[in-house]
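Long-time lurker, first post. I've been practising inverse folding by hand and with some scripts of my own, and I keep getting stuck on stretches where the structure tokens seem ambiguous. Below is the full token string for one chain I'm working on. Before anyone asks, I'm not after the true native sequence, just a reasonable design that respects the backbone. If someone could post their per-position residues I'd love to compare against what I wrote down in my notebook.
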């Protein structure tokens, strides 16, 4: 197994370091290689995704990614901004399916922004199409308007577009995921149900999306399909989040809804993600950003990255037992009352990035979980 390690910017190096420590604690046979990406790569080599980094990612079996971005790079031309690195990796590696679980761990129910009775047992899987939609659609740009409400003035435009094959492949991922979750049993939210989120009432793009979802669904008679407009979905996520099982949607809507769902769980610092190609090769990253304001302070929550490593073992490296060990260790650490500042509450032990990593390693190796106070 070869893993490409791309720490990135801000807190990326700190949280990835802890995830790598956890992987080594499992005593698996793997090799890894680290490369620059994002703003760190731009500063060292003049581009956020250098050729050597892309080549490493292409040659690896899986990629463990930290985060990219820093305010000091916001004035760069768009093609050189750190965020272009992740977009480039998705494009070049064909990573079209983004899996974002929103799981409310029992010890963190009180940390959620919603009432405990709404989030207890919450277990949603959001599947976001990742390489199409308005983020990649052409044409796009800025120009002088020749029509519209204000001709002769500057305007900007982006194009939302999806092809039938793009929709078909993400639909299969969603239906298969719902089927597997239902078959596994024991998951509070797993009912063999897919909610397709669109805006078919006003957008031609999403009328095609809905039509194709209905057609593909015919191949999965054991899975329930419902359709929901995106504005209603956003409301239902905070009104009755446990009604969802698997949610599938486009790139733009998925970007927004998955971050909303993150806050139902108590902290965006708890949520991992996987971005997969058609052969289960993937890039694994926490869904939070680079947080340059706390970089180097040792307070970032590494659990989302550690759980991303577990997803990597499960989806790309065929190491389900090892993935289970990591997830069980994280549960044990939370049950022991250890909390980084983003999930801390009265009566729990506030720890830093390294201490949280120490605790997960201890849980994996059968040692006593430390209870360091800060």
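-- Answer (accepted) --
I ran through it position by position. Result:
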């Amino acid at each position: 197994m070869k893993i490409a390690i791309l720490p990135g910017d801000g807190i990326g190096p700190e949280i990835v370091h802890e995830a790598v420590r956890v992987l080594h604690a499992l005593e698996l046979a793997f090799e890894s290689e680290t490369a620059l990406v994002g703003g760190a790569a731009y500063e060292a080599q003049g581009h956020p995704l250098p050729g050597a980094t892309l080549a490493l990612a292409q040659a690896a079996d899986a990629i463990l990614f930290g985060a990219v971005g820093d305010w000091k790079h916001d004035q760069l031309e768009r093609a050189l901004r750190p965020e272009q690195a992740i977009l480039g990796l998705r494009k070049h590696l064909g990573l079209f399916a983004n899996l974002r679980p929103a799981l409310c761990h029992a010890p963190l129910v009180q940390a959620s922004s919603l009432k405990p009775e709404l989030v207890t047992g919450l277990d949603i899987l959001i599947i976001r199409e990742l390489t199409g939609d308005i983020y990649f659609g052409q044409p796009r740009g800025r120009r002088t308007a020749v029509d519209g409400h204000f001709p002769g003035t500057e305007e900007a435009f982006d194009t939302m577009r999806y092809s039938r094959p793009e929709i078909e492949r993400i639909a299969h991922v969603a239906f298969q995921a719902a089927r597997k979750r239902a078959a596994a049993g024991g998951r509070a939210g797993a009912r063999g149900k897919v909610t397709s989120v669109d805006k078919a009432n006003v957008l031609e793009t999403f009328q095609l999306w809905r039509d194709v979802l209905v057609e593909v669904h015919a191949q999965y008679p054991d899975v329930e399909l419902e359709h929901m407009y995106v504005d209603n979905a956003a409301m239902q996520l905070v009104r009755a989040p446990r009604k969802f099982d698997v949610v599938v949607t486009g790139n733009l809507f998925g970007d927004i809804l998955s971050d909303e769902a993150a806050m139902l769980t108590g902290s965006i610092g708890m949520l991992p993600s996987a971005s997969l190609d058609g052969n289960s090769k993937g890039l694994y990253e926490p869904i939070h950003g680079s947080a340059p304001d706390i970089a180097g302070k040792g307070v970032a929550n590494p659990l989302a990255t550690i759980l991303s490593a577990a997803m990597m073992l499960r989806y790309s490296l065929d190491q389900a037992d090892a993935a289970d060990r990591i997830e069980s260790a994280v549960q044990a650490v939370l049950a022991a009352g250890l909390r980084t500042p983003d999930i801390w509450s009265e009566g729990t032990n506030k720890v830093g990035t390294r201490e949280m990593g120490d605790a997960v390693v201890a849980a994996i190796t059968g040692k006593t979980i430390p209870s360091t106070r800060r």
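A couple of notes from the structure itself: The CA atoms of residues 65 and 285 lie 5 Å apart. The longest strand covers residues 2-8. Happy to go over any region you disagree with.
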